[in-house]
Amino acid sequence: GALLLTKAFPGMGMFGLRHGENCAIWNDPGEALLVALSYLAPRQRESSDQGIVDATAERNRIAAAGADLALNHHTWDVRMLELQPYIDAVRGAR
Fold first, then answer.
1. What angle do the packed helices 55-73 and 29-40 form, to 10 degrees?
2. 3-state helix vs strand vs coil in the chain, percent to 5
3. Could you tell me if 8 and 28 are in contact, meaning their C-beta atoms sit under 8 angstroms apart?
4. What is the pLDDT of residue 67?
5. How many CB atoms lie under 10 A from the CB of residue 66?
6. I want to staple 1 with a disulfide (CB 3.0 to 4.6 A). Which of 14, 16, 40, 63 is the partner?
7. 33-80 pLDDT per residue, tens
8. Which residues, 6+ apart, have CB-to-CB distance to 12 below 8 Å?
């Protein structure tokens, strides 16, 4: 479970991706660097809503939540079940 650092894209919320909950999201390369450094550089950092937080513990918590999200909602089996109606429709159209 490594912390996922990902670029923002439209509709990412429908995949369950939430900044600070199960991944770290950035909008441009400069912001990506700042986000990465905020989780990597200091052992403790100031959070706007939580005061001083242990960046290592926060990173590990977010990484674990991201791993759980991936293992439970973004597997090959899950994707195939989502695609099955489209596959069936194509088969029915032949």
1. 110
2. 55, 15, 25
3. no
4. 94
5. 23
6. 63
7. 999 988 886 566 666 666 667 888 889 999 999 999 999 988 999 889
8. 6, 25
